[in-house]
């Protein structure tokens, strides 16, 4: 079994997923997402730390302080997508620092952000960050599969 550790962070607004029910993701809760992620990680032998934080500054602080304890990151930044109190530049700098360490990073989105008028993920393709979105909780599962593949090829 692998001893690779995966950090999954969910940003502001993801503690209550009831607003996604209107988008066709009926009865989706963060607990369900966490359970599915746990099952996927277990099937690959990955250790998982699943977190949610509504405080953007604290979320980035966790990334800065804890990323050395993890081999990969999946992040759903949610509230960072539009108006952010800490700024997109700071978010990008932290994520780029992680990818520069050679750690795989995948940004996930439950919804199709392109359909909602957003024009791109928070990280462009030049950053080395993967992106999976618009597939409900399956976005997370696909991201876990991709992370596992990247870690297996190291």
Automatic annotation (TrEMBL):
<dbReference type="InterPro" id="IPR001874">
    <property type="entry name" value="DHquinase_II"/>
</dbReference>
<dbReference type="Pfam" id="PF01220">
    <property type="entry name" value="DHquinase_II"/>
</dbReference>
<keyword id="KW-0456">Lyase</keyword>
<dbReference type="GO" id="GO:0003855">
    <property type="term" value="F:3-dehydroquinate dehydratase activity"/>
</dbReference>
<dbReference type="GO" id="GO:0019631">
    <property type="term" value="P:quinate catabolic process"/>
</dbReference>
<dbReference type="InterPro" id="IPR036441">
    <property type="entry name" value="DHquinase_II_sf"/>
</dbReference>
<protein>
    <recommendedName>
        <fullName>3-dehydroquinate dehydratase</fullName>
        <ecNumber>4.2.1.10</ecNumber>
    </recommendedName>
</protein>
